[in-house]
Structure formats: structure tokens, C-alpha cells
Automatic annotation (TrEMBL):
It comes from Paenibacillus xylanexedens. SUPFAM superfamilies: BAS1536-like. This is Aspartyl-phosphate phosphatase Spo0E family protein. Gene3D superfamilies: Helix-loop-helix DNA-binding domain (4.10.280.10). Transmembrane segments: none annotated. It comes from the Bacteria. It holds the Pfam family SpoOE-like.
Amino acid sequence: MSEPVQITDKIERNRQELSRLAENHGMQDNQVLRQSMVLDELINEYNRFKYKSHLRNRQPIA
């Protein structure tokens, strides 16, 4: 499995967990806030990977 697919799978699992926690505990619960930070970091990781990949594949202008 390639890295972007693994990250997107983790993002989806963590998004579902965040949704479950928010539904059960409310948006201000510490568990929800921690899970939100985990999800944010995974999204940042995905964006860093995609940005680095994009730069590698760029063609020179001239």
C-alpha cells in the first residue's frame, strides 16, 4: 500500500472516531479535543506528503 493511501485510511478512521466521540461526549470534551488534534496532524502529514510529491514532479518553466 502506498503512503498516501495509508494516510487517507488513517484519516478516515480517525475522523469516524472523532465523530463518535463528539456524539457521545459533546464537542468540548477533552477526548474530543485530543482526537481533533490527532486528526489535524494526520491531515497535515498528508498535505506535506502531497506538497513534497508535487514539487518533485514539477517541470522547469524554461
